[in-house]
Each structure stands twice: as C-alpha cells, then as structure tokens.
Amino acid sequence: MDWTTGRWRRLGLAAVLGLLAGASPGGEERPNIVFLLADDLGYGELGCYGQRVVATPRLDRMAAEGLRFTQFYAGSTVCAPSRCVLMTGRHVGRVHVRGNAGGLLQSLREEDVTVAQRLKKAGYATALVGKWGLGEEDQPGFPLRKGFDHFFGYLNQVHAHNYYPEFLWRNDRRVPLRNVVKKPEGKPDSPGGWATEKVQYSHDLILEEALDWIRAHREGPFFLYLSFTLPHANNEAAAALGNGAEVPDLGEYAGRDWSDPDKGHAAMISRLDRDVGRVLDLLGELGIARKTLVLFSSDNGPHRESRQDLGRFRPAGPLRGIKRDLYEGGIRVPTIAWWPGTVAPGTTDHVGYLGDFMATACELAGVELPPGCDSISFLPLLRGQASLQKRHEFLYWEFYEGGSCQAVRKGDWKAVRKPMFTGKTELYDLSADPGEEKNLAGEHPDRVREMETLMGAAHEPHPGWKVSPPKTVR
C-alpha cells in the first residue's frame, strides 16, 4: 500500500489508522447499519400509524423507542424503481430502473453506484438477504457485482411472489427447496407460481439467514439490507385461487369472521412485525444494539392483490390512493429509525425519501457521496440536531403504467399531473389536506406553473422509458 498517494494521503495516517480500527475519518466509531424494508406495506398498516385491526406490537415498540417519521416517502409507487432509488440515492426521474420492466431495463448498470459499494469501500461487511429485483445472475445488477459480499433470497421479483418456491439463491447458486410448484396456465417458464406442496416458507428461511449473518459479523462494522417480501401478495395464486395471502398459519386471526384473504393479509403483517422484533432482540442479546442504526420502511404504498378488503384495513390510513398511485397513499410510507442511546424517542414531520439513505450511510461511514446524487443525510435529525438538518428543495416521482403520471412536492404543496408532460396538473396543500381531496389548481395558477417547471427540470429523458400517447376512445 502506498501511504503517500491518493485517498490515503488525503486522509492522513491518523485517519487511516482510525478507519482500520473501525472509526470514521472524524474519529467516531462507525455504527452497524441494518435497513429493514417491507414489501407493499401501507402507511396505515401499523398500530403506531393508526391501524386498528392488525396487531403490530414490536414495530409499535420500535417506534416508541425510536424516531417515527410521518412524512417519509418511497422512491416510487412500485418496487423495482423504488429499490433503485434506495440503492443509488437518485430520484426516479434520473435512475435507470423506472418501472417493473424486466430484462436489462430492470438491472442496475455497471456505472450505477450503490450504497453497498460505498459501505464496502469503507470497510463494512455487506449482505443482502431477501428480495433484490435489480439484476439477474447474468446481468450487471447482480448483487455480488453491486457491493454485497453475501446474498440470499430472490433475484427476480416475480419469483418473489411465491412464498413456497422451488429454490432460493445463495450468492451465485440455487438452493433447492422441498416445495412443489405449479406454474401459471400457459406460462411454463414463468418464475412465478404457487405451491401444491408447501414445505419451506421463504420468509422464515430469509429471516434465519439474516440472524445467522448478524451473529457471524457481530464485531462489525456491517451493513445488512434485509429486504422482506411480506406482506406482498402471491399475484399468481390470487389469480388462480382467489387468495394471494400466503402464510403458514393465520395465528390470532384464524377465528375471525373474515374472508381467507383478509385473515392471511393480517397474519402476514403480524408475522413481519414479530420478526422485526427478533432482529432487534438479537442485537440486544449480542450487546451491539447501541452501536447499530436500524431503519424500517416500505418500498411503496399498500396493495390489494391478495383480494383483501381495503375497507377493513384502511391500509393507507387517511391518505388517498394505494400502490401504483402517485397520490400520498401510493408513496408515503411508514418509516422508523431505532438506535438506542443515539436516536431519542419521538415523532418527526421531516420530509425525506428512500433516496436519502445513501447520504446518511455515507456520512455514518465517513465516505464521500457518489456524484450526481439527489440525497440528503438525515443523520443530524437522528442525533437530535434538528437545527442542522438540511431539507430538500423538492421531491419528485414519475410512473409509466396506467397512462403515466408525475408528482412533485415542494414544502407543503403537492402537484400531480396525469398523463406525464401533457395532462392537467392537480394541486394540493398537504398541510390542510393530506388526503388530497381539494384540488386548488384553479386558485393558484402561479404555483401550478412553478410545480410544472420543477417536473420538467427533474425529468431526464431515457431511451428505454417513453410515455405512450393516450389512446383515442371511439
């Protein structure tokens, strides 16, 4: 190693020795980082966010002991682009993966820098356990090529629909399971399906892998991205069997006078809740809770693909819309930060999004943010230094399904335009109308023009993502 050149010369010998000893360039011990991501969990599906019929005691306790965000957003309203935003720290108008497209359009590129790559460069052990959805084994977005030392779970998001699959991935090898899977009619090569013999439940395997990995890396520093599949539906099972909620048992909901999809959906959320608690408990048992930041969030708003009753669960709480909407219910997500001894209990209305994880992780690790990010660290907020917390000028989203849509938030103002570029812009004051019931566009034309200008500036054209012209109705 040449101590006189490059990064080492810039840091200085004392800082280098600190890095090797597990400290940041500022001399502080670098914490472990655990990011827990739920799949399709709505803003209103936890007790600490107003849920009344599903029990979530461990996440409620996590929120009571940590910081609960009330205005935190996903990167998109569906999974792949939202996860791309999380990994790259760029908003969806500037990333490569802007929808659930499959193929190379849904793979990270070689030039896309992930938070795992930055943390690995800083000396962190890194693992992805659960669902990826940003690159297959023969693509540049394969997780072992994007900064993860270890991977276990699903590469393909359709494969991840099935909670009883024929196999899971461990690094670059398939691990066969004892489940027997039926493929959708006419799609023998589909990665999705449903099990006719249910033996091994993928979520349980994923959790145990994550717990074992934490035990093996307790000395730290480590980064674990634990990407749960709960409570996402098995879409193929829902289409064929009328129920997409796959769970080994219904628990406390078995005796409820509810439909099977409703019982299953509730049981999936309670199982998720239980297992978040198991992660937190293990950190305590190992004596590393006080040097571990745990973040919990969701990739987008709630689904209805299990065929469950939205009226019973009110999964978006007071918000309008669900998954595939750019109204608040499709993109505002429950988010909790837990770091005993550092994060003080409380609630914050700080406006942030999944893309801010990149800057936060880089600041914690003492490494530079990759160029071109749309990411602001919320570490000052976590440390109780709200006066030092920077804020976004605006947040931006775009979506290509269902005729396309754009949305932007600046301050308390939110604009939604359908279709992208050409539709009429709706305008809402979220401080008075979080449910986006009253369109104020006609009363504030100057504000509408401002928001449309922001939409235009935020969108970067991409050859793979084009808006289809609206269909003419005859």
Give a description of the structure.
With 474 residues, the chain is an alpha/beta fold. It has 2 domains: 28-388, Alkaline Phosphatase, subunit A, CATH 3.40.720; 395-458, Arylsulfatase, C-terminal domain (2-Layer Sandwich). Helices cover 26% and strands 18% of the residues. The chain has helices at 6-11, 13-20, 57-65, 79-88, 115-121, 202-216, 235-241, 260-285, 310-313, 328-331, 356-365, 379-382, 445-458; strands at residues 32-38, 67-69, 72-73, 125-131, 150-154, 167-170, 173-176, 180-182, 194-197, 222-227, 292-298, 335-338, 346-348, 352-353, 395-399, 405-410, 413-418, 424-429. The strands form 4 sheets. Strands 7-6-5-4-10-1-11-12-2-13 form a 10-stranded mixed sheet, sandwiched between helices. The chain has a 4-stranded antiparallel sheet with strand order 15-16-17-18, covered by helices on one side. Helix 3 (57-65) packs across helix 8 (260-285) and helix 6 packs parallel to helix 8 (260-285). The longest helix is centred in the middle third of the chain and has 26 residues, at 260-285. 52% of the residues are buried.
